[in-house]
Design brief:
The structure is a single chain. The chain has 126 residues and is an alpha+beta fold. Helices cover 23% and strands 44% of the residues. The chain has helices at 18-28, 52-59, 74-83; strands at residues 2-9, 13-16, 31-37, 42-48, 86-92, 95-96, 102-108, 113-125. The strands form 2 sheets. It has a 5-stranded antiparallel β-sheet with strand order 1-8-3-5-6, with helices on one face. A 3-stranded antiparallel β-sheet has the order 2-7-4, with helices on both faces.
Length: 126
Amino acid sequence: MVEHEIVTHGPNALFELTGVVERVARELGDGVVVVFSKGSTGALVVIPSEAAEEYRDAIWGLVPLEGWEHPGNAYAHLRSTLIGTSIFIPVSGGQLGIPEGYGVFFLENQVANARHRKIYIAGLPG
């Protein structure tokens, strides 16, 4: 298992993880790569790399920032719940089973600068 740390800023900023996930896939050969984000306000997505900015802009309106009884960051918890904090990607011959041109991204939902996020990546043999 690989523990990968990123330093983020947000909200709604995307951070690409494709390279580190591909390294785990190459070492695995065949099976499934599991990617998990520790915490309850980040999210993980697999999207076309060239559309990352469009995705980021579109997701902004998914959950409003204000109007919640929970003070502070209810919006970040809800976005994380809707999008997800883990993904499973099939691997064959050391290659990720995602379309060409797609990437694996962490989405920061918190309004914070220099937030340290831990992402865990594990290969499960198939």
